[in-house]
Design a protein that fits this description.
Strands 1-28-27-26-25 form a 5-stranded mixed β-sheet, with no helix packed on it. A 4-stranded antiparallel β-sheet has the order 2-3-4-5, with no helix packed on it. The protein has a 4-stranded antiparallel β-sheet with strand order 6-7-8-9, with no helix packed on it. It starts with a helix and ends in a 15-residue tail after the last strand. The chain has 337 residues and is mainly β. InterPro entries: PROPPIN, WD40_rpt. It is a peripheral membrane protein.
Length: 337
């Protein structure tokens, strides 16, 4: 744990590059991004659009693996399970009778079939996938399903959760879920195997975003104030480290912890914890291999940047593309997780 605290050295910056190219002719002019989400290890991401969904892999370079356009309403929520062919979707709008927003569709793209439809009385805000669980987030309840039979394992109550905040671990040795508690600024951490619950007072104001490390040992949080990122021991709730993003309030979009537990990054309307951008679009941030940071924007942009782990300073941009313009390489994502 101390290695993470001592290794984080301050602000890394990304130089302001030229304005990113607008969508090219080969992309649909009316194509809109409704959601973007990393897979569990940032080796790929899925984009929900107003027509369907696209899946991209990031190693070694970004490429489009799957593109589907089943209807004109699209998916407001799209999630993927590692680089397998298993996905979860929620439709965009009640005027879409085939894919309404109160249903979760668990989809096997290899077999081209829906494995299950999970129906709820209210709108689904978010969905999270793990090896053992499908987690469905409503405004004040979270339903945890066992993946192998899609039966309800438990229902968790929360305070109002309009952003659908929730995160789950993705390793065989642990099954941990974190979500808002019953009071603003509170997080509840559930050990799904041992039925142990820990409540953590993370902030004074409401939680804006949170993430768990892959092994479920660390929890990172940010509040709606947006000035501090806090790192907790997810098991006992101990505050381990606090990072100041800035003095001014800012909306934090998401926060990520590197797999080696040495780096933290957070994207916001002001930029990020470890690097700064032009704040013209909303990004989600994740860590790649060999000291790289990956960003996916709702404007259709993808960026891969390398940072100096020893001295910090300005980041080097390695890749910068408009992902809708990429040609599909074919579905090569068959296999386990």
């Amino acid at each position: 744990m101390n290695s993470m605290v001592s290794t984080v050295r301050g602000i890394l910056t990304l130089s302001r590059s030229e304005t990113f190219d607008s969508p090219r002719d080969e992309a649909k002019s009316d194509l809109k991004v409704l959601s973007v989400a990393w897979n569990q290890v940032c080796s790929g991401f899925i984009v929900g659009t107003n027509h369907g969904f696209n899946v991209y892999s990031c190693k070694p370079m970004i490429k489009k693996s799957i593109s589907r356009a089943p209807h004109e309403s699209g998916f407001k929520v799209a999630e993927m399970l590692f680089l397998s062919n298993l996905f979860a979707f929620v439709g965009n709008g009640y005027n879409n009778s085939e894919y309404p927003p109160n249903k979760v569709f668990v989809w096997d793209d290899y077999r081209n079939c829906c494995l299950s439809e999970l129906t709820f009385k209210s709108e689904v805000i978010a969905v999270k996938l793990a090896r053992e669980h499908v987690v469905v987030v409503l405004k004040q309840n979270i339903y945890v399903y066992t993946f192998n039979n899609l039966k309800v394992d438990r229902v968790i109550e929360t305070l109002m959760n309009p952003k659908g905040l929730c995160c789950v671990t993705h390793v065989e040795s642990k099954a941990v879920l974190a979500c808002p508690g019953f009071h603003p600024g509170q997080v509840q951490v559930h050990d799904l195997r041992w039925n142990v619950i820990k409540f953590i007072k993370a902030h004074d104001s409401a939680i804006a975003c949170m993430t768990l490390t892959l092994d479920g040992s660390l929890l990172a949080t940010a509040s709606t104030k947006g000035t501090l990122i806090r790192i907790f021991n997810a098991v006992d709730g101990t505050l381990l480290q606090e990072f100041r993003r800035g003095m001014e309030r800012a909306e934090i979009y998401n926060v990520a912890i590197s797999s080696n537990l040495k780096w933290v990054a957070a994207s916001s309307e002001k930029g990020t914890l470890h690097f700064s951008l032009p704040a013209s679009t909303k990004f989600i941030v994740g860590f790649g291999s060999e000291n790289t940071v990956l960003l996916v924007g709702i404007d259709g942009s993808f960026r891969r940047c390398k940072f100096d782990h020893a001295d910090g300073g300005q980041m080097v941009e390695l890749e910068h593309k408009y992902f809708f313009s990429l040609q599909e390489t074919g579905n090569t994502m068959v296999g386990g997780v």
